[in-house]
Every structure is written in structure tokens, then in C-alpha cells.
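Appendix B. Worked example

We walk through a single record from start to finish. Start with the input: the chain for MalT-like TPR region domain-containing protein, Nitrospirillum viridazoti CBAmc, length 362.
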Amino acid sequence: MPAHTAIPFADPAFMNPAFPDSRGFHRQGRGLIDQGRPEDALPVFQHAALLARQGDGQGVVDADRLGRILYDVGYCLYDLGRIDEALAEFQDAVAAAEQGDAQGLVHGDNLAACQHLVGTCLARLGRDTEALAWFQQAAEAADRGDAQGRVDREAVGHSLHQAAACLARQGQPDQALPWLQQAVAAKEQGDGTARVDHASLGASLHLMADCLYALGLIEDALVWFQRSVQALERGAPDTPVNHDDVGRARLRVSHCLMDLKRPADALPWALAAVTAVEDGDAAGRVNLEGLCHALQAVGDTLASMGRFDEAMDWYRHAAETAEHGDPAGLAATLTAGAACLRKLGRTEEAAAWELRARTPVG
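Next comes the structure step. The output line below is what the pipeline stores for this chain.
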């Protein structure tokens, strides 16, 4: 569940090839973005911005259009890892969007998108306090809707979620909860067509559960983690399900049940987490670090139930996986396996595992 995501505009009307000047170059740049070529798109967008600043035949500048182009300039820079430069472009995009179009009409959706990306850059740079204010502004602007007054509640919820994430990272989960409640309520209403992005909703439900867990409210967190699993299993519209996210949510359900001393209930969730993580993310890529955690969770659950022989099979699998994909987590797995071996009375094997656990990685 990546914390900061930059999403380019997709406005077919705006990209109409019948429009001359900056629009043609903007459309060309968007085509390059669609091909995954931000480094080639960047100079095209920059030229489009130059033309947009010159205005039409009478020198009238459509600042809203300029803001959209600057947004895409920033998007390319962000995608290329040039975050400081992207931040400056997004700030310029905000200033342009605040002026409105050629008729002076401010498009709340455009303004909100630009403000959200300013917040995204600031958060990426570790400046969460500043980012929080920008995400709040973005949510308020998105709530005003587009030129026709249509409100994309998903966009509102996305900005509210990121505001909450800033607070959570600052160690203020109690302050994050009200923002997340609003984010969930907004996302449940869907986008401008009332279509719900359940993957996005699941991310907010998961963060809500994380905050409750951090506050020691384990039973409440359990309910929200279960809700997040249900949402994540449905996924985003027209997109493959990210099973890695599903697996992490299932694993958190298992952790809650273990904390509540319910290992028999936790076991099927841990096993289901392994299955999901093995299925990979939306592109089918398997997160070996996450898989190691899920495998060890199965071992921990079985060990807590006194099923030590079975647990050892899972610890071995987890250790093998850690050696390939999570070297930093290998020591914890080996230590857990050693404790299990001692329960079985196999002290020599346990000592060997303990020695491996103390051996520096690499």
C-alpha cells in the first residue's frame, strides 16, 4: 500500500486534437506518458506550458489549462524521482488553477489535484506537517466539484486519507482517526459516477485499523482489518486485485486474534495470508519479505497451539524465503525456530539455529 501516488490527468475533452497551440503538445506528452516514457514527455509538456503562458491570439491566458499542463510537468519530474523540482511545478500549477479558466471559473477538481500533489511531494520529502495542510485544502477543493458541480468523492477521500497518514506517521493515531472516518465515508460514495474503488477504500480501512491497533484497541482494530480484507478482495475497478495487499490485511487479522489469545481462529487467517501473498500484487509480483512474515505467522500460531512439529515445517520455509528475499528478517525467523526446536527437545539443532541467528547477514 504505497503512501504517496501521483496520478496524471485523463481528460479526453481537454486533449481534443482539434485544439491548436499548447493542447496539441499536451496531447503528445500524454501519449508519451501512456507509453511509460516520462523522460521523453517532460520537454514536450514544458514546451506546451511555454505556449500556454503566451495565451491565445488575443494574449488571453487560460490559467486552468496552464495549471493542467504544469501538473503533468510535475508528474514527469515526480516519476523520475526529482521531487524538489516536481514540488515547485505543482505549486505553480496550484497558483495557475486558482486563477481559473479564460472565463475566470475555478475548477475545483483541477485545483484539488494540484494541491494534493503538492502535499504528496512534501510528504515524500518528510515534511508531513506542511503536507497535512495541503491535503486538507485539496479535500476542500475537491468537495467543491468540477465546472459542472460534480463531486468526485473518491478524490475527497483520497486527500483525507493522506492527511490522516501524515498524522499517523507523526505518532498521532488518535488525531488521524477522525480524518479516516471521513475518508472512508467519502470513498464509500465513489467517484463522479458513483463507482467505488474498493482497493482505495480498503487502504483507508486498513489504516483505520492500524491506528486503532496502535492505541491498544485490538478488538476494534480486528473489525476494521476484516472490513479492509473484504474491500481489498474486490479491488479497484477494471484492475487486477492486488493479492499482496489482501495478504497483509489477512495477516493483520491473524495478529489481532493472536493478541486476543485466539490462535485457533488466527490460524486460517495466517494460512490465507500466505496464499494471497503467493499470488502476488496486481502485476503478479511476489513480495518475498511479506511472504516470509506470513509463513512465520503460521509457524508462530501452530507453536502457540503446541503443534511444534508442524510449526517447524513453516519456520524452515520462512527461513529459506528470508534468505532469498528478506535477509534482515532472517534472525527473527531463526530465533523463533530455535525456540520451537527446544520445545521438541532437539537442543543441538536449536543451538545451530541460534548460532545462525547471531551470525551477521552478508
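Two observations about the output. Residues 308-325 form the longest helix (18 residues). The radius of gyration is 24 Å.
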